[in-house]
Design brief:
Layout lengths: L1 H25 L7 H26 L2 E8 L10 E6 L10 H13 L4 E4 L14 H9 L7 E3 L10 E2 L2 E2 L12 H8 L2 E2 L3 E5 L5 E5 L16 H4 L9 E4 L16 E4 L10 H8 L5 E5 L2 E5 L16 E8 L1
Parallel strand pairs: 1-14, 2-3, 3-4, 4-7, 9-10, 10-11, 11-13
Antiparallel strand pairs: 2-14, 5-6, 8-9, 12-13
Length: 320
């Protein structure tokens, strides 16, 4: 509907401009024929349908994006491979095959660590048909040194109206089965806490609650100062948070690499353009001081199961 009416508006504005110019030159009023109008509507409808078909194919075709970070950045002596995923948004529009493909792509990369940047479901655990099917698929993700996840803003139980919630963050609660689902998937859940991996030169993985929906009755998540208070400045730190936020502060607290999702890179054109203009970082790799920040467009979709001018991806981060 959006694409149909947007294209129609653009065509009509162009026609109006052309007719206005011709009228100034010839002083004759021109009215398009019914046959022309009918043909134009059919062409516009065909274009809108084609965009949706191509968008559906793109949304269900999981790509692999590669990034390289110098191993000194994370205090490593040996190469380390991290796979970042996010925004699976399992819900009413989901099909297991998409996540089977995602799992296959991840395992092909033979990662040391897998980090999941949240939005596992879309505002309702109950909207996930046959959760045991999805947990079995995600449990097959292989990582030699662990799989870690944080919650996103949609990993709570909340009513939606037109795709938007109308309850306060302090009322956003988890479904009681969410933790069991995550455990069944084989992921370690981090909620404003830091774990240390001695086998990777003491690499710290710091996992934050979501900023807008911290969940579980928590009104305000821990600040970076509070989260990093137990770490030493010399320790390498990987920050896992759903939304790319507080980017200007990362360097201050010794965070070497921050990985996030949330943005979907706009998901549907021209959303990707607006997202890149509006947000501090909508997609890809960018330096913020000494900190590296990577934002993935995610695997799933929010709302319509299409992607136009964006991709469904896993992000492979080679620390070498």
């Amino acid at each position: 509907m959006i694409y149909f009416f947007s294209i129609l508006l653009i065509v009509r504005l162009a026609e109006f401009a052309v007719r206005a110019v011709r009228r100034l030159r010839t002083h004759e009023k021109q009215t398009p024929s019914r046959a022309y109008c009918r043909s134009m509507l059919i062409l516009i409808l065909a274009a809108a349908v084609a965009l949706n078909v191509c968008g559906s194919i793109t949304a269900h075709d999981v790509k692999t994006t590669f990034y390289k970070i110098p191993k000194e950045t994370l205090g490593q002596d040996e190469p380390l491979r991290i796979v970042l995923i996010g925004d699976t948004h399992i819900g009413v529009n989901s099909t297991p095959q998409l996540y089977r493909d995602m799992t296959d792509r991840i395992n092909e990369q033979d990662p040391d660590i897998v980090v999941f940047a949240g939005d596992i479901v879309t505002s309702s655990y109950g909207a996930m048909r046959e959760p045991e099917v999805y947990s079995e698929i995600l449990s097959r993700i292989q990582a030699k040194r662990g799989k870690y996840v944080v919650y996103g803003n949609h990993d709570v139980e909340e009513p939606l109206l037109g795709g938007f919630t109308y309850i306060g963050a302090e009322n956003a609660l988890r479904h009681p089965e969410m933790e069991k689902f995550i455990a069944d998937c084989g992921f370690t859940l981090l909620r404003d806490e830091v774990i240390i991996l001695p086998e990777f030169n003491g690499l710290c993985i710091a996992g934050r609650r979501d900023e807008s929906r911290p969940g579980d009755g928590v009104k305000v998540r821990a600040s970076l100062a509070e989260l990093m208070s137990g770490t030493e400045p010399s320790e390498p730190v990987l920050l896992l948070q759903h939304e790319p936020s507080d980017l200007e502060e990362l360097d201050t607290y010794g965070i070497d690499l921050s990985v996030s999702g949330h943005t979907h890179d706009g998901q549907i054109f021209p959303g990707n353009i607006f997202s890149r203009i509006r947000g501090p970082q909508s997609y890809g790799l960018k330096k913020w001081g000494a900190a590296n920040v990577i934002v993935t467009s995610g695997v799933g979709f929010y709302g319509p199961p299409i992607r136009v001018a964006t991709i469904s991806e896993i992000a492979v981060i080679d620390v070498e």
